[in-house]
Automatic annotation (TrEMBL):
SUPFAM superfamilies reported for this sequence: Homeodomain-like
InterPro entries per the UniProt record, alphabetical: Homeodomain-like_sf, HTH-like_dom, Transposase_8, Transposase_IS3/IS150/IS904
Domain HTH-like: 143-199
Signal peptide: none
Protein name as catalogued: IS3 family transposase
Pfam families: HTH_21 (PF13276), HTH_Tnp_1 (PF01527)
Length: 200
């Protein structure tokens, strides 16, 4: 199982680096263990921290600069999200007053372009409902159809492929199934079954 490295904020990193300087007599490996850090974390953080030292070494803008960068990135992320929301709403607007089926079809067609979570949020849809639509659970009707098709296949081969839809329908009706000849014909087509054509 893949392990994910824990993320630490800039304030924590700065405090850890400053502590490592204060406790210079303690090895970095031991301090990392005490703080529950991953191996070589402090060495990496120190190198990054020292890039922001002033020329005289009396000041360090590590935290200030990185917090500003973080703020800018967060603003850019929010702006991008807002733009995506507008784009989704604009492209899906024609389906908003239509059946939900059409809206779900739009979402399925755009999954590679937009995050599912964001589309559901913008279009006011439930993610679980959408997922169930994509992978529908067998309904009673589908289960009944599958059972009948299985029975049709059994009868077809039991009578050595000589029974067509009418005779199979009669066998099914006699067994208690309420089914028409035309339905048996459609199911046989779906199963790829056909009785040989008799030559005159």
């Amino acid at each position: 199982m893949k392990k994910y490295r824990k993320k630490y904020d800039y304030a924590f990193k700065e405090r850890a680096v400053l502590l490592s300087y204060e406790r210079s007599s303690t090895s970095l490996a031991r301090l990392e263990k005490e703080l529950g850090l991953y191996t070589a974390a402090l060495s990496s953080w120190r190198r990054e921290y020292e890039k922001f030292n002033s020329r005289d070494g009396k000041a360090n803008d590590y935290l200030k600069v990185n917090l500003e960068r973080q703020r800018i990135l967060e603003l850019e992320k929010k702006t991008k999200k807002s733009e995506l929301k507008f784009e989704i709403l604009k492209n899906a607007s024609r389906y908003l007053n239509e059946k939900r089926e059409l809206l779900f079809q739009f979402m399925a067609a755009n999954e590679k372009k937009y995050p599912i979570r964001l589309m559901c949020e913008v279009l006011g849809q439930n993610r679980t409902t959408y997922r169930l639509w994509k992978k529908p659970i067998n309904t009673e009707k589908k289960e009944r159809k599958n059972a009948i098709k299985k029975e049709i296949k059994r009868i077809f081969f039991e009578f050595r492929q000589r029974y067509g839809c009418q005779r199979i329908a009669i066998v099914l009706q006699n067994a208690g199934y309420q089914i028409s000849y035309s339905t048996v014909y459609e199911y046989m087509k779906e199963l790829g079954l056909a009785s040989p054509i008799k030559k005159n």
